[in-house]
Amino acid sequence: MIDWISGIVADGGYLGIAFLMFVENIFPPIPSELIMPLAGFAAAKGELTMAGVIAAGGLGSVLGALPWYYAGHRWGLKRFKRLAKRHGKWLTMGPEDVDRATDWFDRHRGGAVLLGRLVPTVRTLISVPAGIARMPMALFLLFTTVGTLAWTGLLALAGYLLQGSYDKVSAVLDPLSILVVVGIVGTYVYRLARRKGAA
Question: d(Cα 185, Cα 10) in Å, to the nearest integer?
Answer without folding.
Answer: 36
